[in-house]
């Protein structure tokens, strides 16, 4: 396999029966252009712009200016433009097709949100502007905070965390601060179900807790007997996702909340799956103490390669005093951002600190509020209902050819295991790669860990029935191909993708993140 100097395969499809890049003189395939790294396309000794030599000006940098070459590739504007557009055409996006990644809520990002986020009063503000000049932006943050508290029935929200995992950190730091304020420094054990997202235990450990795993029962929910047996005076709390990562509602959630509170601990709820219940269930009514909301999942702001995240975290009365600065308050007609801990303390709060330099992701706040207001309360309720309906449609259409991990209906995602692939020689990974050849982004694979060879499909409410039918037809066809012994289709998949199977272990163990100029560049760029 031809490699470029970074060790990446440049001609992955050379041997594929369909013909690969090697078949053409240019390396391109049809109108899918081959594209090397930008450093290989541009030359570091050239520049893309021609500025006249500066004459008669004196530097004011006091001798600190760079003397050596900057070492960036020189490309003209059209060349740079084409480089990135060509790369983008190798990518997959929610604007191209269904993105069935379970636990990620990859829904359509309405264009109205983009229009709102670009209004100059929101898009062009600077975080260091005097507060009197950004009253509208502060009001927007306050309004969004109000609706997040209303939808969750909680009295407080920290708007600044910049992702779900960051929100978890915010919530667990508040729990740690509340325990410390009670003088309970011995409570350091956090109960985490074994189906939890990896960020849950990672966050707990980051905050100085240690994790104790609760097993799942045969239904894919928390095993209540095992949970009760783990309660004790050193328990700081529980981190529970609801609906959980198996796509199932934790039916005993009220009892779990009561028992953890009786034991003196707090209830952190991972709210990443809020899409399944938004407008229908208020987590505050279920007894949670803290929960992050991924605006980029439930409230449709772009994520993954499409934009930054935002993870506002709501708090119960018990944790509200410990919420971080900054936060927005309304004083008469004026909106005010409380930025310093001293000011918050003067208000009677005990913030554990601050999580970000400024106030969070303004663009995401604007998009999320635009989404909420355009849906209204009935529309948001329908979001939850339709997302659950769509997942159950996928489950119902595929359960005769694939094997659902659990009996019964699901919430907003359909979970299959790999029993239907038993003795076919095809693995979950092969199955997912074959989906790429069919033009579909694979579902989440091998997560949650409690299910063997897991395939977690979250269609979201924004897919139409005909779109879901096409998707299910393909999965059905692939399942039948695997069972009928057509393994060649899977072993070499994906044959139609720009890059084939990557050595992911090597990439993780030995990441090459910095481009190094090398002598034999022309050869490497082939
Ligand atoms: C997405 C997700 C997270 C983390 O959210 P990020 O915004 O990606 O940091 C945590 N838990 C679950 C269950 C998730 O699906």
UniProtKB/TrEMBL annotation:
Family matches, as Pfam families: Aminotran_5 (PF00266), GcvP2_C (PF21478)
Positions with biased composition (Polar residues): 1-16
Location of region: Disordered: 1-28
Transmembrane segments: none
General function of this protein: The glycine cleavage system catalyzes the degradation of glycine. The P protein binds the alpha-amino group of glycine through its pyridoxal phosphate cofactor; CO(2) is released and the remaining methylamine moiety is then transferred to the lipoamide cofactor of the H protein.
Enzyme class: oxidoreductase
GO molecular function terms noted in the UniProt entry: glycine dehydrogenase (decarboxylating) activity
Annotated source species: Glycocaulis abyssi
EC number: 1.4.4.2
Lineage start: Bacteria, Pseudomonadati, Pseudomonadota, Alphaproteobacteria, Maricaulales
Residues in Glycine dehydrogenase C-terminal domain copies: 385-482
Xref: NCBIfam families: PRK04366.1
Domain Aminotransferase class V stretches: 195-304
Protein name: glycine dehydrogenase (aminomethyl-transferring)
Protein keywords: Oxidoreductase, Pyridoxal phosphate
Catalytic activity of the protein: N(6)-[(R)-lipoyl]-L-lysyl-[glycine-cleavage complex H protein] + glycine + H(+) = N(6)-[(R)-S(8)-aminomethyldihydrolipoyl]-L-lysyl-[glycine-cleavage complex H protein] + CO2
